[in-house]
Design brief:
Elements lengths: L1 E3 L1 H18 L2 H6 L2 E7 L2 E6 L6 E4 L5 E4 L1 H11 L1 H8 L5 E10 L8 E10 L3 E9 L5 E11 L1
Parallel strand pairs: 1-2
Antiparallel strand pairs: 2-3, 3-7, 4-5, 6-9, 7-8, 8-9
Length: 150
């Protein structure tokens, strides 16, 4: 589920609604509870709510849960789309061309903050960056993605 405050909905609700209704698969919407904190042309800030299904158990004396790599990559690809579309508009259809994620440290259960921004929007390809931070505001994952107009 993706939620936003009334100011964001009044300005970008049509973009959010189209992605929810036509683009995102049900498994993304059913497993990720994301709050859009800020959304402007080319930039977004999100918070991810805890869902135990997204975490893997780490056994041992310091047993813990860490956010799965698959969840991190899905978040990056799914959430960069909003700053991209607020910058370029919805008239063009785009698809993911490439994605590169670096896992810098484990993301333990707690508040997760996600920054997504467009790096460059060219005539055929749009590049963006997604940074994922843990509850201590430490950078844990960094993704660079490219979308292409189709």
């Amino acid at each position: 589920m993706i939620n936003a405050n009334s100011n964001i909905i009044s300005k970008y609700g049509h973009i959010i609604k189209k992605q929810i209704d036509e683009v995102f698969p049900a498994w993304v919407l059913n497993n990720f509870s994301v709050e859009i904190i800020e959304l402007t042309a080319g930039k977004a800030l999100y918070e991810l709510a805890y869902n135990p299904d997204l975490y893997r158990k780490v056994p041992g004396p310091n047993a813990s849960e860490i956010l799965s790599g698959q969840a991190i990559m899905t978040l990056a690809d799914s959430l960069l789309i909003f700053p991209v579309l607020t910058q370029i508009g919805q008239a063009q259809e785009i698809v993911t061309l490439s994605s590169n994620t670096e896992f810098l440290r484990p993301i333990k259960a707690g508040k997760i903050t996600i920054n997504a921004e467009v790096i460059r929007a060219g005539s055929k390809v749009i590049r963006g960056q997604v940074s994922i931070f843990d509850a201590d505001n430490k950078l844990c994952a960094l993704s660079i993605l490219c979308y292409i107009y189709i």
